């Protein structure tokens, strides 16, 4: 099985990778923005599953050329079974942010995942196979003042995944939208500090896989 993970340093994505490798040796391509975290996770996965192949790619997720290069490169080395798009970013408080930060929230959480999915969809439809899995969030269902930009970006992902699934109906390509609730990962540290109940990341990873 060949799996490409976009946003491999995500807590949920990391646990998904561990579970996949428990099931059977696999070929993993891990893509992330943070080189140091990416290397640490890749090293851990290689130790866990010496029979698996784990390669990494690091770059700017807001660079269209990088996105295209990642997708074209991973497809060129062999058919992909699953593309998991898992990256995201949520500032602690989204009230009164400057416009550049507002733009970055929308770009990281909505525009970038959509562009990755579009690039994968173009290749998968030619092959007539593959699964595009996108991690969204229940934050897109109801937005609040502290997370309304993040929530709006996840709402876009929900509608996009719905439309992409409709577009690819009958093509042999599956589109899966995963919408976790609050999960115990670095992105929700401020919620945990405020006393909110968090789902264990291991459980969310297991449900995702």
Strand order of the largest sheet: 3-2-1-4-5-6
Mean pLDDT: 91
Helical percentage: 40-55%
E-strand count: 6
Low-confidence stretches: none
Please report the number of helical segments.
7
Silhouette: globular
Q: Could you tell me the strand content as a percent range? A: 5-15%
Explain what this protein looks like in three dimensions:
- This protein is an alpha/beta fold and 209 residues long.
- 49% of the residues lie in helices and 15% in strands.
- The chain has seven helices and six strands.
- The chain has helices at 11-23, 35-48, 64-76, 99-127, 148-167, 189-193, 201-208, and strands at 2-6, 27-32, 53-58, 82-85, 131-135, 174-178.
- Strands 3-2-1-4-5-6 form a six-stranded parallel sheet, sandwiched between helices.
- Helix 1 (11-23) links the parallel strand 1 (2-6) and strand 2 (27-32).
- Helix 4 (99-127) runs parallel beside helix 5 (148-167).
- The mean pLDDT is 91.
Quick overview of this protein structure:
The chain is an alpha/beta fold and 209 residues long. Helix content is 49%, strand content 15%. It has helices at 11-23, 35-48, 64-76, 99-127, 148-167, 189-193, 201-208; strands at residues 2-6, 27-32, 53-58, 82-85, 131-135, 174-178.
Keywords:
7 helices; globular; alpha/beta; 6 strands; six-stranded parallel sheet; 15% strand; 209 residues
């Amino acid at each position: 099985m060949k799996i490409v993970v976009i946003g491999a340093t995500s807590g949920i994505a990391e646990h998904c990778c561990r579970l996949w490798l428990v099931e059977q040796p696999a070929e993993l391509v891990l893509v992330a923005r943070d080189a140091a975290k990416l290397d640490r996770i890749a090293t851990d996965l290689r130790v866990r599953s010496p029979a698996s192949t784990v390669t990494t790619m690091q770059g700017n997720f807001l660079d269209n050329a990088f996105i295209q290069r990642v997708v074209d490169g991973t497809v060129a080395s062999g058919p992909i079974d699953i593309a998991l798009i898992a990256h995201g970013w949520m500032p602690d408080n989204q009230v009164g942010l400057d416009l550049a930060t507002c733009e970055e929230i929308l770009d990281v959480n909505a525009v970038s995942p959509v562009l990755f999915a579009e690039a994968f969809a173009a290749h998968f439809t030619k092959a007539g196979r593959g699964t595009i899995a996108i991690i969204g969030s229940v934050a897109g269902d109801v937005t609040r003042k502290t997370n309304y930009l993040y929530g709006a970006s996840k709402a876009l992902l929900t509608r996009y995944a719905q439309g992409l699934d409709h577009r690819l109906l009958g093509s042999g390509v599956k589109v899966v939208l995963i919408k976790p609730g609050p999960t115990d990962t670095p992105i929700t540290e401020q919620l945990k500090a405020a006393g909110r109940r968090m789902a264990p990341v291991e459980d969310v990873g297991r449900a995702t896989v």
